[in-house]
Amino acid sequence: MVFNMERRTTPFAKMYLIAIFIILYAPIFFLIFYSFNSGGTMSHFKGFTLDWYRSLLDDKRLLIIVLNTFAIALISALIATIVGVFGALAIYSFKKRQTKNTVLSLNNILIVSPDVIMGASFLILFTIAGIHLGFMSVLLSHIAFSIPIVVLLVLPKLNEMQPSLIDAAKDLGATEWQVLTRVIFPYITPGIFAGFFMALTYSLDDFAVTFFVTGNGFSTLSVEIYSLARRGISLNINALSTVLFLFTMILIVIYYFLQQRSHVKTMGVRK
Amino acid sequence: MNNRKMRNLFMIPYALWIILFVVTPIILVAYYSFFDIEGYFSFANYKKFFTPVYLKMTLSSFWYAFLITFFSLIIAYPTALFLTRTKHKQLWLLLIIVPSWINLLLKAYAFIGIFGKYGPPNQFLEWLGIGTKQILFTDFSFIFVSVYIFIPFMILPIFNALNELPSSIMDAATDLGASKWTTFKRVIFPLTIDGVKTGCQIVFIPALSLFMLTRLIAGNRVITLGTAIEQHFLVTQDWGMGATIAVFLIIFMFIIMILTGTRKRGV
């Protein structure tokens, strides 16, 4: 079978894949390359410099924005994970198929609805509720759009769990709480971590929703990059993109290993 | 009994979330669409939506979204197909997905440099002797960058659908004398149509509502439904009209979801 698979990788297929890879990565490396340009533009490479990185470090305002962005991402991912795991448990516990599907559809609305709709409707919501636009409104909206993702990543783990596992624990005299903390949670841990990481990346990446509910005075990285980019090219952004790229790579490596581990684990259980 | 009590306890924060952040916002958008800019109840916004200006904008928004989805599919399908035939396919897939995790704004910003007056494509044109062309702020750059951004989202569901196909099906088709093209047209593509539908859904709906790229890459030349909503909410402060467009966007979203609906959701 392996032989069969390899036979089908034609030279054309390889060329095509390589071309796609180059196109997908070229803009990112283009940015990184010019972040070392002493010329100050994204076109003529004059000479190597680290000035842009230095000015990045000196930029107090940007530093605060970076800290805000991470604070929002971590707090929102954490809260969304807790609410999402409980939500997934609730959906899992519904016996009726119809109830399950209805709640799941409601869950998925925010995933499929365009960012602009979410942003605009949250803006109305916060204005009516009298919530000041700033840290709080951004945090609440990030929690809101991360919850359904966590639910979707945790639920398959719950469904994959054999009910006999819970029955066995109950027969052996475990209380509901013990079943939850000793049997269910350890089993779905990979899903919980995957959900947390997804929520983290969604929050770090979000631009549109934040743009609507951020108000004056509070800014996240995406919003800041947008306003900088509208003013034109500044190699500070390039330096920033290098840092963010490296950071994203680290996150991905962690995520990959977590998944890899969870994969091995579930395989082990299945055997 | 105990079980039910605990379940209800779990349900509280999640149910609150559904009520406050899923149901209420939709109701609020619908409610606001009935108020004109002075705050009086009226159907004026709906009347305004059916004037040529807004209808033309809606049509052009659909046209751009269609083009973006079409090119994404054309490029993504072969990529997904070839990916399933590589040796370490999961790793390759991950590498394809990685760029989608890089901040969207940074990618858009990169293209401002790339498509700029002195960017690589223009230097290449110069070298060919054609001379510098305006690439940024054109329909081409807008569609190119949008496709660039959406490709990974199109590849993923198609890859998953292809990956589930047992290779014995392809072997059977070949054994029965089907050519490569026939196998693809009659066997592989129909069996992965669900993945294609999911991919189109994932791309088309956001493509209708893009607003950041229209400003940065298309230089306000392209106005999508998303741009119009953003304009009404954040610039002209005409929330009523913005909400009306949002209502129509929600309706379009549901229609698209029904049209591309698959029994098995792969998110």
Automatic annotation (TrEMBL), chain B:
| Listed transmembrane segments | 12-34, 62-84, 91-115, 135-159, 202-219, 239-259
The protein's location, in the record's own words, is: Cell membrane
Q: Where is the ABC transmembrane type-1 domain?
A: 58-260
Q: Which UniProt keywords apply?
A: Cell membrane, Membrane, Transmembrane, Transmembrane helix, Transport
GO (cellular component) term, any one: plasma membrane
Tell me which InterPro entries the record gives: MetI-like, MetI-like_sf
Q: How does it sit in the membrane?
A: Multi-pass membrane protein
Report the principal subcellular site: membrane
Which GO biological process annotations does it have? transmembrane transport
* Similarity remark: Belongs to the binding-protein-dependent transport system permease family. CysTW subfamily.
Q: What is this protein called?
A: Spermidine/putrescine ABC transporter permease
Instruction: Identify the species of origin.
Output: Cerasibacillus quisquiliarum
